[in-house]
Design brief:
197 residues, mainly alpha, 5 helices
Length: 197
């Protein structure tokens, strides 16, 4: 659940926003030639560091706690089911060694019950894994939606032509970093949902 939440659709949003805001009728044709500057004579570009957003946005922190609880629940369920199956297998083996089966049919019945327990455990654990994956997907969407909607509002009050991700380039002038502003804004508007309390 680490830093993967924010990259996917947010990157598409910013790519689309960059293309839309940078494209104009004055722009040079796409041929490798430089793009004409915006009306002011230069582009006003800023960047954000998604690693820092992930580390400092309270919603991400809350989702990380939820994810840890989910993974702990899954790990505990796996250990419990494994212990139950090992215990049942040992019981069957001990009963067989001590001549506790009066017929092959009773042995086969126990083996079939054990195999059904295995199948049931696999289905149960598979369902838990699917729930964990769906939870992670839902969290990722919610984080992307939150970031995208905040950025959309943020750019209305700032004259930026583009906001890029730091990971999108080899170097950005640190003076162009607005990560702290974005994190502060995200946290200021964040209200912890009841289900995360």
């Amino acid at each position: 659940m680490k830093k993967f939440f924010l990259a996917g659709s947010a990157l598409m949003f910013f790519a689309a926003a960059t293309l839309t805001s940078c494209g104009s009728k004055d722009a040079a044709p796409v041929s490798g030639a430089p793009v004409a500057a915006a009306d002011s004579g230069s582009l006003n570009i800023r960047f954000i560091d998604l690693d820092s957003v992930s580390a400092n946005y309270n919603l991400v922190k809350d989702y990380q706690e939820v994810s840890l609880r989910t993974m702990s629940k899954l790990d505990n369920a796996q250990r419990t089911k494994q212990a139950e199956l090992q215990k049942r297998a040992a019981e069957i083996e001990n009963k067989m060694k001590n001549h506790g089966y009066i017929s092959e049919a009773t042995y086969n019945a126990d083996v079939q019950k054990f195999q059904q327990q295995q199948r049931d455990a696999e289905i149960y654990l598979g369902n838990l894994q699917q729930q964990a994956q769906q939870e992670a997907l839902d969290q990722s969407r919610a984080l992307n939606d939150s970031l995208n909607s905040f950025i959309a509002e943020y750019v209305k009050t700032h004259a930026y032509d583009a906001i890029l991700y730091k990971a999108a380039g080899a170097y950005f002038n640190p003076a162009l970093d607005i990560t702290n502003e974005i994190v502060a804004g995200l946290n200021a508007r964040y209200k912890k949902p009841e289900e995360l309390k």
